Amino acid sequence: MSEQTPDNPNPGPGDRPDDLPTERQPEAAQRSEHGPKRLFRSRRDRVWTGVAGGLGEYFRIDPVIIRIAFAASVFIGGLGAFAYIAMALFVPAEPGVPGEKPSAAADNPRWLAWVVGAVAIAFALSWGFWDHRPFHGPFFIGPPLVILALVAGAIWIARGSGTPRISGPGGVLLRLTIATAVFIALAVCAVISAWAGATGHGVVVAVAVVVIGLGLLASAGRGNARWLIVPAVALAAPLGIVSAANIRFSDEIGDRSYTPNTFADIPADGYQFGVGRIAIDLRQADWMPGSVQRLNVDLGVGDVFVAVPHDVCVSSDLDADVGEVRVPGEDSNGVDAHYEANQSSKATPRLVLHGHVDLGDVRVVNDDDVSIRHRPDDQGSADDMRAACAAPGDTPVAGDGAGKPEAPAAPDTPQKPEHG
Amino acid sequence: LNRRFDRVSLAAGLAVVAMGVVLWLDQAGDVHLSLGLVGALLAAVLGLILLVSGLDEDGS
Question: How many CB atoms lie within 10 A of CB A279?
Fold first, then answer.
């Protein structure tokens, strides 16, 4: 199905690729007789960038079907939308027929840049309006789609910064080599940035980002240094993530398992860890009727697993900046995953758990047999948790970690109705 | 201005400098960035660059 395009304002049946006379056949089709068949973005059968038209010509199927598939894919994860953007950016436009006026829209899908840019800015602005949860609200179109589209856009901008195009018999291999080298260089930049941030030298990286920005400003008169955007992002993003995740390599790294037999074995300030896994098994602790224990756990990156006997109520306040929070019968995941439950319960024995992880999972297990040395698949019973938290009690919270009764502690967060 | 300066480089330079300053302040302890804020900051910077690039008629 041909459509009206800037190049072809009066489309008709004769404009279909298969209907074209021999002298109007696109160069791609002519080339296919002598070489490998190549995929181009169509110049004539185009709604936006000619991706669907090009695929239709390549596979000899109706482009409308491809357009419908692309549109439908937006609602099933967005992978097709990203594929469309990637193809629009990286699949070359169909070479023009000699004498034909080139189409700027086909050669340079500029509209994609501002559409993706506008979506990205909307996404950024949405952060402030939706409970500080950037992937929620009406702008939610799938985090992977947004991130990958931004990366693709950045690459496209860098590609348009005057980098000489390489062609010829060895061009593909040379381009592949250069692309690999660039990728490795960017990965090294990212690792150095992350390492510097985690070892307390992030200021150096931040200054380097500022210097790169000044370099961009200084080169604005020449207009050929847009490639500096890519290393700037490669340096800034890891530093920001490491800093926000509070990752410090001076902290311990690895896996730790704790099995306190008494509440006195639990540190007064709980457990803090940098990167890895913390497994805290409280099933051997001296739980007694009337005992209430407070436990704080703070992890940078990794997993927190906490196990209690099936008859212990867990009054929880758990959150993960990015990751998942799971307690028996409940699951919260994504960005700023948060879960509060049983905070008004007076049942005993009771664990008052405050858990935080910047990047990773927090899981509470109330099964008496499940191992938590590895990621537990079975977390226990939600019914047991409800039953354990149902009984009334009035024992104060032991806030010093030593199991000593003290005055009831004010809750750190506003009381909320019990979940699940 | 259009012919003498590349608007994309200009916008990108300003955005990158701003991002670097925010990171600098974060490293100095004057502000505290959350992961969500970092994501929003990166999206805003790249979004601004892409937007200016898309609207740039010269297209250099």
Answer: 22
Above 70 in pLDDT, residue A7? no
- Taking an 8 Å cut-off on Cβ atoms, the answer to whether A206 and B20 are in contact is yes
Cβ(A343)–Cβ(A370) below 8 Å:
no
B-chain residues near A222 (CB < 8 A): 6
Contact A135, A334 (CB under 8 A): yes
Q: Mean of the pLDDT values across residues A251-268?
A: 85
| Residues in chain B closer than 8 A to A214 (CB atoms) | 13, 17
| A109 half-sphere exposure, CB direction, 13 A CA radius | 26
What's residue B47's pLDDT? 80
Is A212 within 8 Å of B33 when comparing Cβ atoms? Answer: no
The answer to whether A40 and A54 are in contact (CB under 8 A) is yes
Q: How many residues does this entry show for chain A?
A: 420
A243 touches chain B (CB under 8 A): yes
Q: What is the amino acid identity at position A269?
A: D
Q: Per residue in A366-391, pLDDT tens?
A: 998 888 888 887 788 888 898 888 86
Partners of A316 in the beta sheet? A341, A353
**Based on the number of CB atoms within 10 Å of its own CB, is B6 exposed (0-12), middle (13-18) or buried (19 or more)?**
buried
What pTM does this model have?
Answer: 0.49
Q: Name the packing angle between helices A202-218 and A171-198 (round to 10°).
A: 130
Q: How far apart are CA A111 and CA A109, in angstroms?
A: 5
**Chain A contacts of B47, Cβ < 8 Å?**
116-124, 150
Average pLDDT of chain A, as a whole number? 72
Q: Which of A118-122, A159-163, A294-298, B10-14 has the lowest mean pLDDT?
A: A159-163
Give which of B9, B14, B37, B42 to mutate to test A binding, by max A Cβ within 10 Å. B9
The helix (run of H) or strand (run of E) holding residue A295 is strand A292-307
Q: What is the pLDDT of residue B35?
A: 76
For residue A303, give how far its alpha carbon lies from the nearest alpha carbon of chain B (Å): 17
Using a CB-CB distance cutoff of 8 angstroms, which residues of chain B are in contact with residue A358? 35
Q: Tell me the C-alpha distance between A58 and A48, whole Å.
A: 17
